[in-house]
Amino acid sequence: MTSLADMNPPSLPDFGDGNPFADDRDGLVQQIRERRAAVLAQLHESLLSGDDNGWTAAQRLAHWTDVVIVRVFEHIQDALPDSRRTPMSLIGLGGYGRGQLAPFSDIDLLFLTQNPISDPSAEAVEALLYVLWDSGFKVGQAVRSMRQCVTEANDDVRTLTAMIENRMICGDVALARRFDAKIGSMVKGGRSRKFTDDKCKQLIEFKRSVCKEGESFVVITQKGIDPLSLDMLAKEAKHAITEAERASVDDATIEEARASISRECADVSLATELRATRG
């Protein structure tokens, strides 16, 4: 299968020599805007031609976005050298944390530090966010210490859910690994039953909001579903595919369904943005 690195050229951004942030910040923003528009147009064409499906297009766009963020942040930190004194890990969350990004979807970023962030590091984070916003990206962001992340994950299951799907974009590797391990232990530890029950309740509320009386829908999980959750969902006229049932479905069928759903999401996102632009 073609690797992500092979899939992207010639679209990977090249900002040339020097420091474009320090030398011409507005020019850098314009350059990113133009190249992002070209990448989205290229993905649109590849979706229409069948060269890409929604799954691969989302991976390619995430990879391209990774490169932009890493290179711009490096230039910003070079221009603000004191910002490197605070160990920091830049982490993608949610869908972006899975390495997938639908066109015009939000980029969820966590700027993680071990201790409260220093003023120079906060200045670098702010500079990166404004470059991304001015370049047309929709960015959801949080600046948190490790302790703050743990506290918020304990207080809100939705925050914990978002943090489960995390991926380091750049920065302190050891810090990112400790974060991933800590979030994993919170899910697997004493909170796991409450976490699972809360997610099932969210599914039930969603089903009630979208289904008519007597209708049901199917829930497919990554690795099957536990008996207590299965019972909760069954009472709400949901059919959750168990691990044994899932094993009877061949991988090609699952991948085909996944690609089809991702393609539909990409098409809707592109069409919505095009209408907004023309309107």
Write the layout of secondary structure elements.
Elements: H1 4-7, H2 20-23, H3 25-49, H4 54-79, E1 88-93, H5 94-97, E2 107-113, H6 119-134, E3 139-145, H7 146-155, H8 157-164, E4 166-171, H9 173-188, H10 192-210, E5 217-220, H11 227-234, E6 238-241, H12 243-247, H13 251-278
Parallel strand pairs: 2-3, 5-6
Antiparallel strand pairs: 1-2, 1-4
Helix pairs in contact: 3-4, 4-6, 4-13, 7-8, 7-9
What would you say this structure looks like, in words?
- The protein has helices at residues 4-7, 20-23, 25-49, 54-79, 94-97, 119-134, 146-155, 157-164, 173-188, 192-210, 227-234, 243-247, 251-278; strands spanning 88-93, 107-113, 139-145, 166-171, 217-220, 238-241.
- The chain has 279 residues and is of the alpha/beta class.
- It has a 4-stranded mixed sheet, sandwiched between helices. A two-stranded parallel ribbon has the order 5-6.
- The longest helix has 28 residues, at 251-278.
- It is flat.
- The model is unreliable at 1-10, 238-249 and 274-279 (pLDDT under 50).
Keywords summarizing the entry:
279 residues; alpha/beta; four-stranded mixed beta sheet; 13 helices; 6 strands; disordered C terminus
